[in-house]
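PROTOCOL LOG
Step 1. Enter all chains and additional molecules of the complex.
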Amino acid sequence: MPLITTRALTKRYAGNVTALDGLTVEIGEGVIGLVGANGAGKSTLIKILLGLLPATEGEARVLDLDAATQGSAIRELVGYMPEHDCLPPDVSATEFVSHMGRVSGLPAGAARERTADVLRHVGLYEERYRPIGGYSTGMKQRVKLAQALVHDPRLLLLDEPTNGLDPAGRDEMLALIERIGRDFGITVIIASHLLGEIERVATWLVAIDAGRLLRTAQLTDFTERTGQLLVETDEDATPLAQRLGERGIEAHADGRNMVVDIASAGDGEFTVYDAVRDESVALSLALIRIEHRRHQLEDLFRDA
Amino acid sequence: MMPDSTGTIYDIGYRGYDGPRLGRRGAIGAIVSAGLRAVFGLGRSGRSKILPWGAVVLAVLPAGVAVAIRVLAGDLIDLYSYDNYLWGIGALMPIFIAAQAPELVVNDMRHRVLPLYFSRPISRLEYVAAKLAAMSLALLALTLLPVLLLFFGRVLAAEDALAAVGDEIGALPAIIGSGVLHAVVLASIGLAICSVAGRRAYAAGAVLAVFLVGGVMGGTFGSQGGGLEAIAPFVNPLAILDGAREWLFGGSVMESPVGAAGVPMYLYGLAVAVLIAVSWAVLAMRYRSVAT
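Step 2. Run joint prediction.
Step 3. Record the structure below.
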């Protein structure tokens, strides 16, 4: 049973701007990376899923509820972390998160308990009693995540969660998201325009472009070996590629890098390794790196 | 010391929540009670309690004095009746609203907290209604509490309290009705003005301006004569409310411009309806335009 299903989902804004264009997709459990350039329709999709924006055409179901008519029931079970700043400066994290827990429908006592738990999980300790106005960007992002988690949602929608963070803060936020998906058992959808981040934490990928589904794939498949060998030398690799070609091995040089098709040798990958070694010795080329080439997310967009 | 983000303290395990979920009713209740706490500065610094509680004390004080005089001097003088009490403490209301209403709406708007509210079970209108309810309930501390105190004081100060209940009880519906009317209308006007002001200071200034200008213009028109006294009450929200109170429950107030205006009383009811309609329309439009 998919957590989210959309069928021919279309959203046109006034002025004939099409944000979503017949998007049909099924999203299951896990950590899902929703990738797309800025303006690809990620935020529009999130708002429709939350029942905050009516679709122009098509249908969206979240947790088996209709986003158009059962938005309130959906929002009770979904946590949302917006991209922009959204915290009042003059209250403490404890007070704010517990209030948002109650606004999500938790009784007062439960909201207090879960606030303490959740703030600890996101890594806010003594500072949680101080007004949010004095927090660093990293701490604010954690509070934003905590308020989305406080009511124990079944689904978490994070819009560009690493925005504005320094590299260390980015790493911590991604580690936290991975933990939420893996250990807390909550399905997380991360909308991001940064492929590298998605690659690190997501188990599934949904790529959209101009409001249309570009690709959906399990990421483990995706970053598997490609059957290509990546060779880096200390000088121009063109002569090496030519010599390999004479041996019947398909190789393409690009400056000091060369991509070798392992299958083209016919009789196993070790033949290819030996050939690369022998020919570079013959040419007095120093080998810097030999490795199996893996798919990278960028390939997705290149093929498409 | 900042613990490492993957340190042992993290590994307490995540606990889910299987308890009851109160949905939109719980959400509205939470916003109302948080709103009341904000208005009265509860859980905040001592400084933010001074104004709201000072206003409540000042509003209640005349009732205390009136009851004390009645106890000491009997029925000789009656400074305050149920009818003129709210007009008498009228000046406190704009001050209370100007200081405390921005607390309820400006921060959520200015710091873009609203999308977090809207991503929860409630709708935009329910959010606004909850804020209105909070402000109205808070205003009852000025528009109902003192008059109720006056009521109980008069009953308890009487020689025969039981007979006094019989004498005074007839006034109770008017006391409650007028208190609620003032609270709801003033809360609506106050929140509507604050919702279009970008910052707390602007909001406070705008509320004071509306009531001050209304009061001064009303006073000037009233003393001009030549027909202007007929429209004098209608430029001052507090005078409109006094007229509506008199229309609904009777009992004229000497100092209010309503008496001198001499227009049909139902016009005040109409004016109140317009005030509420305009305020609510402003609120609805303002909150509909907030991006999620």
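Step 4. Note key features.
Chain A touches chain B at residues 47, 50, 52-53, 72-73, 75-76, 78, 80, 82, 84-90, 95, 99-100, 102-108, 110, 114, 117, 120-121, 123, 125, 147, 151-152, 172, 175-176, 179, 183-185 (CB under 8 Å).
The domain at 225-303 of chain A is CATH 3.30.70 (Alpha-Beta Plaits).
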